[in-house]
Amino acid sequence: MSYIIAGLGNPGEEYLNTRHNTGRIMIEHFRDAHDFPEWKEDKANKALVSKEKIGKESVILLEPNNFMNNSGKSLPPFVKTPKAAEKTVIIYDDIDLPLGTIKISYNRSSGGHNGVGSVIKALKTQEFIRVRVGVSKVSAKGTAKKPKGEEAVLKFLLGEFKKDEMLELKKIAKKVSLALEAIINEGREKAMGEFNRG
Prior knowledge:
Layout: E1 3-7, H1 22-33, E2 40-42, E3 47-54, E4 57-64, H2 82-86, E5 88-98, E6 102-106, H3 114-123, E7 129-138, E8 144-145, H4 150-157, H5 163-186, H6 188-195
Parallel strand pairs: 1-4, 1-5, 5-7
Antiparallel strand pairs: 2-3, 3-4, 6-7, 7-8
Helix pairs in contact: 1-5, 5-6
């Protein structure tokens, strides 16, 4: 059974380098780094798809072509059983984590993230793996310094990364790649132990 790795974001040029597109930015880096084939458009399921092997494991990369709040709708044709959900990895932006940090989690609520909420609703389970990528500004204490109020949060998430943040994102993309390799090759528990420290 293949690993399914989906990077959440919004389709369209205008969203390319926005914070809410972090999942897509990460999966693009992973696809390039591992020489996956060019994306193929799956029009029926509104997704971009690329398949390759990593070690002995088959891996399917997905970029849902629905907007973030409906991104889960692209997944059910690829994730047909509870067992398949357990091998599904969702990569997305997390405003509760500072830029430069990642966290791997499993079987958690959406945490208020509409894209993850959409995936839970579409798959009828929350038993899948998440790679949460921090996008918030970093406070003096090293914690997430996030905007207050719904409107400010939305504006921040749909805003573009600044130049220095994009450089930080390149570093974090390497870390996300390693985390995905660890999930695929060693399993989620080991990967969580390795990447959730500190």
